Structure formats: structure tokens, C-alpha cells
Amino acid sequence: MSILKGSAWIGDESQIGVKRPFFSRIRWGKLAVISMPMFWLGLFFFVPFLVVFKISLAETAIAVPPYTSLLEWNLEEAYLNLKINLGNYFYLVEDTFYLDAYLNSIKIAAISTLITLIVAFPIAYLIARSEGSVRGLLLAAVILPFWTSFLLRVYAWMGFLKKNGIVNDMLLGMGVIDQPLQMLQTDFAVYVGIVYTYLPFMVLPLYSALEKMDMTLLEAAEDLGARPVTGFCLVTLPLALPGIIAGCLLVFIPAVGEFVIPALLGGSDTLMIGRVLWDEFFLNRDWPMASAVAIVMLIVLVLPIMLIRNTQGKEAAS
Amino acid sequence: MTSSQNIETSLSSNTATDSVPAWKQEGAEPFLRIENLTKKFGEFTAVDNISLDIYKNELFCLLGGSGSGKSTLLRMLAGFETPTSGRIIIDGTDMSGIQPWKRPVNMMFQSYALFPHLSVADNVAFGLKREGVGRAEVKQRVAQMLDMVQLGHLGKRKPHQLSGGQRQRVALARSLIKRPKLLLLDEPLGALDKKLREETQFELVNIQEELGVTFVVVTHDQEEAMTLATRIGVMNHGVIVQTDEPHDVYEYPNSRFVARFIGSVNLFAGFVVQDEPDAVHIESAEAGTTIVKHHGISCAPGQEVSVAVRPEKISISYERPTDADNILEGEIEDIAYMGSLSVFRVRLNSGKEVRVTQPNFDRHVGDRFTWNDKVFLSWKSDSTVVLTS
Fold it and tell me: Around Cβ A140, how many Cβ atoms within 10 Å?
């Protein structure tokens, strides 16, 4: 309490330009509040990241854990040996298998993100435009799937899509097809799985962007001679852009590294980086290689996000 | 004016013939014709069979409280609502089935509805670009329009960087850039503070006269309507109860509703006791006397009426006046000093409270009326308004 009081007082003083010694100028209350999430991030993101990075620079060894140590002590000769192995990273570039996996992951994630956006936009728009009580109900319906285990829901899709599954039975029954379609173990099933799973992550940010929009803006656009389609493109889309970007990031990032969906719904030829990672860790037991794959994936994902955030920040500042 | 509601002829129609406004000319062609327009939302009738003619270069004010249907009427003119029945004819063209983006009409929205992601100049240019006007011309016309509303230097700003008054000007510029035949304004001054309102009111009138655009303004603010309008249409429950020039609406209201809605008024309930060719006598228990009204009223003996007298038409005195037509007695209950004038609340012997305003001619306070003074209230027969509805 006294800390907060102190900071408020110092804040007032600094506004009228009174210089104080460094330590009393620090806003301790503010620092205390910010340090909690920072500590959390450091403990559960930054430290594990460093551990993974360290492993990626090691070599495989038949040991527990199955990699060599970077630092080697030799007490008799009194030297400290630092051994960094960049071979894993070179191998990532040499073997086109990994590049293919990265590119294919990005392709699948990008297409799924686009489809999710197209599916989610009308849903979000409808929710944002509906009356109070209906709106709550629709929002609840969007979030409802989270109450069931993700794994169970993916298994349910297996039941839908398999050779003698519900979708094939229905299409056969209606006479649309006379041979059951091979849907499971194809890229199609992976797209269905990703779009279905990540839909709420797209709907919610879109909804919050559209909900803030003043509907009289569209009337103003029409009044000034814009057809509804033009009004949508020139008013609704630009105003929904922050929601579109947020939603796309929320879908694209986890979709690139997705493992469960391609493993359960995809075929053996559905090459995604998540599965490669899994195989490296658990089949090859090559932890350093798997770590290198993970680090590169992180860089591939983080760089474009930082670019987007940067341009957004500049736009907001202007 | 509908004859059933109006029992008194307007006295202000004796103006010179060359300056007779269009709405008083026989057979003048209206610019905007509204024919039996009705709009229902389910069971609720928002606009009830309105017919109205508005002429070129008019600044017509639709005045009414919330829920009176004035905004719905405006939205039908813009094309955002489809009439349940009736027609809107603008400059000879029937607007039925014509979508908002094809109408020769622009609207200035109450919230201004400026596009938050576009700069001031892009907001103003929006309408021109949709018309496919060339880039150079767009630039030139936007600059011209922004200069007219005195915002030439702010073209690059975003709406959220402007003050309320500046936003209002951007909205006005944006709605005028396409040179509409008819401009609709929804509470144009509602969001401005009092001082800015007064300035903007006159500016709006100047712009309207300069460009020769026909304005239809919706407002709930009677003062705004009085200063802006060439004519006022007073709306209540989806119906236009009176259409007249501001002066006539104030001095010759045709119903209790209009009398009460515009300005303040003292109403006395009573009934006609004597109906002579040149005068009518109304006995009012509330007033505690018989009220006399000379000149042109036609009503039957025994008919129940209301007598309306504006507070500023009533004189207040200690002595019983000798030349007044109507005299009431009472006691001053409350005084509100408002600077330029004072408002007195006088309790009559009948218990009825009467509001009287008197200009403060003198600076010193000494011999002014004060609390609990016994006074006489009087007014001329001419100031009496007899209302039957």
C-alpha cells in the first residue's frame, strides 16, 4: 500500500519537473505489477527456450539424456572445453526433407487460415449484429466445443470422415456417389480438422473488431453512393483489419506446428513439421536434431509476427 | 394547416407579393413531395400517413420529441427505410424502389459517421470517388469544400484528432461534396456545446443560402428549429400536427401539444359561454374569471377549450389595470432572476399556478416585485390563443 502511495506521489512530482534521486524515481508499484508476468514468461518460455537451444547445439549420444554436454571439464589437465555442434542446422539445409516439411506446413497452415477466415467472418458478423441475448447464446455456442477434449473431437472427425463413416453413408444414401470417398488420411481431412479446431480463435477476435464498428458508417457509405459490396470493402474490411490480423496469427501459428491433427487425420504423405519433430524425438531419439527443427520453426514464425506488429505499431502511432 | 385543428387565421400573411415564399403561392411546384407516407414496425406505426410539400431552397425543420417518428421519416427520405405505404417524390422523380446509393440525396448523420480509418480529405472525397470523378477534380473539389468549412489546413488529420465542432464541419463537407439536391441533417448541432451551436447555426444557414440546397433538418431542439428553419413541421406520434413558419408556430399554435412543446405557455381549461360575432367569452374555473378573446374564432357555446397565454405576454402590477382585457389576481410564490429577465410563479386564488416573465428594465432592485406580493396579472385579448384540440 505504501509503495503504491509513494509511486503516485512521485508521479505527481515528476510531472512538475522536480528531479529526484534515481531510486526514488523508480515506480516500484508499477515494477511489481509488471514483474509478475515477466517472471512467468521467463520461467516458462525463455528458460525452456534456452534449454532447447542448448540441446540443438549438442550431439546425439547413447546416454541419459541422449545428447552430449556442451561443456567438458578436464580436471587433470585443467581445461574447460566448449563444444558447439552446428551440424544439425547444416543438416536441416542439406536434406530437402526438412525444407519440404517446413514449406508444406506453412502451405497447409496458410490455406487453413484463409479458409478459417472465410468461414469465421460471416459467423462473427452475424454475432456482432445480433441482439444482446441472442449474441450471448451464439458466443457461448462458439466457445462450447472447448468443453470437450480436443483429442475426442478429432477422433469424432475420424468417425465422420472414414470409409464407412457418416459423411460417406449420407452421400451414398442420397445417391451422390456410388463408391465411398477416401477422405480420411488425406490433406482434405487435415484442412477440415484444422479449420474446425481453430474456428473459435478466428471468430472471437473478428467478433470483437466488428462489434465495435458503428453500423451507421455503412449507411453513410451507401448514402455517398457506395453499393453494399463497395461499402464492405472500403469500410467494414479496413475496420475489421486488427481482428483479421489477430485471428490469422492465432490460427496460423499453432497450425504450422500442429501434430495431432495431421497424425490422426492426415495420411502418411501429409508432411508437416510437427510430425517430423515428433519422429525425431521419439522414433530417432535424436534430441539435438529435433531441437534444431524446433528452433528454426520458432524463428520462421516469430520473424513475420514481429514484422506485422512493427507495422501495426507504426500505423497506430501515425 | 388542417382546418379542423386550426381555428385561427394566421395574421402574418400580409407580406408583399414579390417576396411571398413558395409555400404560400397558389400552385407552386414542390421540390420534395411526401404523399400519404406510412411506416410500420410490426404493430407500431412510426410514421402515420404523412403528406408534406417542401419547396426548393427551403430549410425545413422536423421538430419533435424522441419517438415522434421524425428520424424514421428522414431515414425514408434517404432510402434506409422502405415505406409501408405512400410515396416520396424528389424533384419530380418517384423514389420508390430507388436504393440509397442512387438517390440525389445526402445525409449528415447525428453521430457524423465519419470513417475513422480515413483522413479528413479522404472522408470528404469518398462520395466523389464513388461517382468516378477524375483524380485532379476530386482533389480540387475537396480542397474547395474544406476551405468553405474552414478546415483547409486539417485535410490530413484523422477524425479522432479533431474537436467536436471540426468533426461536424467534416460531416457537413462530406455530405455537400456531391452537390445533392436535397440535404438531410439529423440533429446537426446535437453534439455541440451551446456556444458552438449558436455560431454553427448561422453558418449552416449561410451555407444553405450560398449553395441553394434544400435542407431537411430533424431536431428535438425547438430553439434550433426556430433559428434555422424557414418552416417547422411539429411531429407527435408519427403525425405532423402543425406546419408553419417559426413565428406562426410560436404565436399561433394549433393545439395544446404544439403550444406546450414550443416555448412555455400557461394553459387554462374552460368552456365557451358566449359566442358573439366579434368576441368569444370563455369561463375558466382555473383562471377564476371569464376570459375574453376578440377576432375571428368560430366555436359553439358550451364547447370545451383551452386558453393559452405565453408568459412574456402577461403584465404584472400592484394596481388593477384599467386598459387590459383579461385580469387575474394572485400572489407571487417564486421568483427566478435570469439576468435579462425574471420569471415569476404566481399562484391564483383558484390554486392554479401561472408563469410570467418580465424583462428587467431597471438595474436597481428596490421597488421590484417580491415574494408573497398580491399582484394583478393582465394581458390583451390579442395575446389570447384559444385551442380546441
Answer: 9
